[in-house]
Design goal:
There is one protein chain. This protein is of the alpha+beta class. The chain has one domain. The chain has two helices and eight strands; from the N terminus they run αββαββββββ. It has a four-stranded antiparallel sheet with strand order 3-4-5-8. The chain has a two-stranded antiparallel ribbon with strand order 1-2. The radius of gyration is 15 Å and the shape is globular. The N and C termini lie far apart (about 35 Å). The relative contact order is 0.19.
């Protein structure tokens, strides 16, 4: 739903799995319904123990070089990636630890720039 091309979706899975390997997506296969193709993924279940404070998400990401662009969307200029949709249903808190379970990553053109 966020991605126009499958390549962007697969990049999202790879980036998520790189940053959050303990909550990695496993691509199980594909499902076709009414001429639409869907990816079927599996991920570890996390039961939150407290409400996620979005300011804690912002602090964590800022300390890791991300810039808050608007609401729950962030940009990491050195890496050339964007992560969006980090609201309190996509970032869970368990035992004072943030768990990013439903990330939406995009690569920017600067990701592909040669140094």
């Amino acid at each position: 739903m966020f991605y126009e091309f499958w390549e962007d979706y697969f990049n999202n899975l790879l980036i998520h799995n790189f940053f959050f390997s303990h909550l990695a997506y496993e691509l199980l296969g594909f499902y076709k319904s009414e001429l639409k193709l869907f990816a079927v993924v599996k991920q570890l279940f996390v039961r939150s123990s407290e409400i996620t404070e979005l300011n804690n998400v912002k602090i964590f990401l800022t300390e890791n070089g991300f810039i808050n662009k608007r609401a729950n969307d962030y940009y990491q200029p050195e890496l050339g990636i964007i992560v969006e949709d980090l609201h309190d249903e996509n970032v869970l808190t368990k035992d004072d630890t943030l768990h990013f379970i439903d990330t939406v990553f995009f690569l920017t053109t600067s990701f592909f720039d040669e140094d």
